[in-house]
Amino acid sequence: MSRAVISQGPLRGDEPVIEIDMSTDLAGIEMPSPVMTASGCAAAGRELDQFFDITSIGAIVTKSVMLQPRSGRATPRMAETPSGMLNSIGLQGPGIDHFIEHDLAWLSERGARTIVSIAGGSVDEYAKLATRLRIARGVSAIEVNISCPNVEDRGQVFACDPTLAANVIQAVKRHSEPRMPIFAKLSPDVTDIVSIAGSVVRAGASGVSVINTLLGMVINPDTMRPHLAGVTGGLSGPAIRPVAVRCVWQIRQAFPDLPIIGMGGIRSGMDALEFILAGANALSVGTAVFHDPSAPVRIHAELQRALVDRGFNSLSEAISYAHRPKDASPEVDDELDFISE
Amino acid sequence: MAVQVKGEVLDIRRVGAYQVLSLTAPGISDIARPGHFVTLGIGGEESSMLLRRAFAIYQVQSRGVYGGTLDIVIGVHGKGTRWLADRRRHDAIDIVGPLGRPFILPKERVSCVLVGGGYGSAPLFMLAVQLRERGCRVDVVVGAATEEKLFGVLELKRVASTLTITTDDGSLGERGRVTDVLPDLMDRVDAAVVYACGPMPMLQRVAEVAEERQVYSQCAVEEAMACGIGVCMTCVLPVVGEDGVTRMLRSCVEGPVFRGDRVRWSDVGTIPADTLGAPVEGGR
Questions:
Q1: Which of A283, A336, B210, B258 has its CA 20 to 30 A from that of A23?
Q2: Complex ipTM
Q3: Phi and psi torsions of A50, nearest 5°
């Protein structure tokens, strides 16, 4: 690739924005931007459409939907934590039929690329969800949220067991339209995330979404009891970003060509850049949306600027760039310059 | 339709136990209605406090040298509100609003009672003014633990037909709670609507008093929110719909103003067994 010489800084300052090709190919989905929303942080896109054009970003990843309507857990459902938050929503949602009829139809009408996140309590429920989506219009891909307890197996979380995870992915694959891209959303709460990734890939996943929240807990000092009604909750936000970058890196090391959606605490273009360099083909912005509802478009612009500043001519040149051999670049000094920024 | 704007602090002043923050808010103040709220980003762009803080809109000025401006009332009870109270003139603050469903105003010239607990009286000023403009009679009851924790007594006195004050310790007005004096007041003025904003137990009692008299109640709830725009699903409470079905509704977009007779006040903080989609098992 051709690199601009950073130290001479021809691209710095207040010069007009230089546009580069920010498109990405995610398991066959052509997207104008790698930046997407994260499941559970954007509902079904409608609310965020007030703040930015949801068709301009890569895709809307909808909140995990289950087969039946679901009330979710009691409140309190969240706690603010240092550079993050804990949530224990309990997958509140309208159920797949209502979702297809109202939310998916609206997204399709609006012209937004949509990745539908599904969640189930059994392999059969995932299969049924896939079957329902097979005939639905406007689905670009399915993201399978496997960080759910298996009600048929003492609440063992699918994502934490390579066999259970594979069973779910296999069922979704079998019941989906054959060319539908299927992403398995992995939990970081495992000893070896690479082996789980391998397991879901062998089961037919087109790619992986990395990472889901980390299990956490807060004790309320006033009540001296767990703060969340659900006792434990999922930790998200910039606090978990280094964990997420590590997971993307490890999976990319093991699977050089696997489509990876990176997420976990992305709040700025510079954060997004880390994920791209570590090997992500696309990104989900989650908790940052709660802080800044227009975060996805801002992060897209900041990422483009960060890539231009580093001399990249396109987003795709930067994907996995951190994995290049140590002697691959003659301009090591320049790189050190910007790494220390 | 809400917008996100960069506001600027015009003024911050202490009022009793609270701080009143005046902000420029172009595009928000001119469409804000009584009961709408705004959320503010806390701690700047690199903040470790990610969740926005929600505040009822107290006053708006849609024109003037600064364009649109709005005032909110801050009670300091944590790191985020402390940060806001420490802002100074010209500081920038990220504002999203106007948010939520506002109070519904009566079409006819009826008698209205407004009830505020603590700085829950903040959204009642705009409401009182607009009700008076429609020719409604407006009687106001405000209460707090102590005199210091009352908000805006003088201004309310100006706009209301009568103002009743209660404090838990008797430091000003009648000793007791707003809901102690509410039933007699409602009967005396033949109230057709009661509007309330304040702590949940107060709202519950207001809704009960209204229902006993078959009077319409409009209650603005205070639930912990993360996003304020309807995407995080943390600020839910059980509300009965017109179809008789209980759902967990988001107070940020389906509220914060609810009909008092629709909210299952005793079940707030729980998932009632007959809620759509209950009971819950597993998942996160």
A1: A336
A2: 0.94
A3: -65, -30
